[in-house]
Amino acid sequence: MEKITINITVNGKQYEKEIPPRRLLSDFLRHDLGLTGTHVGCEHGVCGMCTVLIDGQSARSCLNFAVMHDGASIETVESLGTPTNMHPLQEGFWAKHGLQCGFCTPAMLMVSKELLDSNPDPSREEIKEAISANLCRCTGYQTILDSVEAAVNQTKEEVTA
Ligand code: FES
Ligand code: FES
Q1: Domain with 110 in it: what CATH number?
Q2: Which of 47, 64, 103 for mutating ligand 1's site (highest number of atoms within 8 Å of CB)?
Q3: Average per-residue pLDDT for the chain
Q4: Candidates 29, 30, 60, 110: which one to mutate for ligand 1, based on the most atoms within 8 Å of Cβ?
């Protein structure tokens, strides 16, 4: 099958890859780059589990072919932090029990990051709106909202310290 070469930046690292034109962005991230933090649920654009940021905007990677994003910059959950140096959002989810099985968590973190990048002090309603396209089977959403609020408060404290 014909392959296409793309140049793409993922989590700040540049890649040049030859891939089939119909390779989904979600499969490209998970299988070609080994970034399995991006989860795949429905593969039909419904659940939101596969959400990543493409040039700073959230998008469902299961609905995009990787070749559509030649030259783009992608952020996945792996860009956020490490176990010893967590992003405030990860700290918030840790502290407020924002996850149970964790399957929805990478996508929840990425839509929350998109929100905080443009609005560092969102209201609870604005957080609700931001995560509303992502499904969670476990938490009932309240602890996710608490987690994002905790990240907002921590960031505010750091700024004023
Ligand atoms: S896997 Fe469900 S929206 Fe992409
Ligand atoms: S924590 Fe299990 S789906 Fe959200």
Answers
A1: 1.10.150.120
A2: 47
A3: 97
A4: 60
